[in-house]
Amino acid sequence: MTSRIALITGGTGGIGTAIVRRLAAAGHQVASNYRDAAKAELWQKRMRDEGIPVTLAQGDVSDPQSCQKMVQTIKDQLGPISILVNNAGITRDSTFHKMKYADWSEVMRTNLDSCFNVTRCLIEDMREHRWGRIVQISSINGQKGQYGQANYAAAKAGMHGFTISLAQENARYGITVNTVSPGYVGTDMVMSIPESVRAKIVEKIPMGRLGEPEEIAYAVNFFTGEEAAWITGANLSANGGHYMGW
Ligand code: CAA
């Protein structure tokens, strides 16, 4: 297989770390952004102890200028990025009638504007090299909606709209663009939902359990492979059967 340079935004988080591990195991050189230097350095050490020499670049995905610097830093160290996983995301859950503008806009900027900010900085390199893999990490809640998540569901649904447009524009340049829509995975984000609310959610999952971060990384790795060259504009659900719409 060909070793590529892969950027996983939010790589230090629960699902992000699993994607970093999986793409590194597939032989790629992996990089991630960070915002909190102290936390990121500890994480980088952990990855290095596991034998994964991950490259880190400071960058706030909600800020276009910060993304330009971040992508340039990675390019200077490793070379042009040919696999991008737009994974960074946050929640600011609240029923809509109580939602503050800040809760709306922080989620839109971090989860959706980030797709523009990061992808725009490297799409020209991918087009020039006539090879690229872009994967958006959306959510089951972008597909089905969720009580308390008007902001998050709107941003996550928007990510797949972004996917299917980019997929059309870039298909002839050897670039595939796909979405993975995870269900409820046992990360800090999901574990911070009140226990009683979370228990009711788990009851609705046919598999009867939360997902593992590795189960999402498996789906991401599938889209990034050489053999996935004819799969573009797809939205792959990995949710334990929680939502089966198509
Ligand atoms: N359907 C119908 N009613 C619901 C409901 C639902 N799914 N969830 C809560 N309610 C009801 C409650 O029973 C309660 O009713 P009563 O007042 O009659 O008792 C009422 O709504 C509470 O409404 P409030 O506006 O007062 O809500 P709150 O401020 O207490 O909290 C909330 C609301 C923050 C949204 C809380 O319900 C919550 O955290 N829900 C979980 C949201 C969620 O799933 N987030 C996912 C985070 S993980 C993630 O996003 C990863 C991913 O991609 C899957």
Radius of gyration equals: 17 Å
Q: Quick one: how many beta strands?
A: 7
- Give the strand content: 5-15%
| Distinct helical segment count | 9
What is the fold named in CATH at topology level?
Answer: Rossmann fold
Give the distinct bound molecules. acetoacetyl-coenzyme A
Query: Which descriptor suits the 3D outline?
Result: globular
Provide the CATH top-level class. Answer: Alpha Beta
The name of the CATH superfamily reads: NAD(P)-binding Rossmann-like Domain
SSE order, as H and E?
EHEHEHEHEHHEHHHE
CATH architecture: 3-Layer(aba) Sandwich
The chain-level structural class is alpha/beta
Number of domains: 1
Mean pLDDT: 97
Describe this structure in words.
- This protein has 246 residues and is α/β, with parallel strands linked by helices.
- It has one domain (5-236): Rossmann fold.
- It is 49% helix and 15% strand.
- The chain contains nine helices and seven strands; from the N terminus they run E-H-E-H-E-H-E-H-E-H-H-E-H-H-H-E.
- Strands 3-2-1-4-5-6-7 form a seven-stranded parallel sheet, with helices on both faces.
- Helix 1 (14-25) packs across helix 9 (213-224), helix 3 (64-78) packs parallel to helix 4 and helix 4 packs parallel to helix 6.
- It is globular.
- Acetoacetyl-coenzyme A is lined by residues 91, 93-95, 98, 139-141, 146-149, 152, 183-184, 189-190, 193-194, 197.
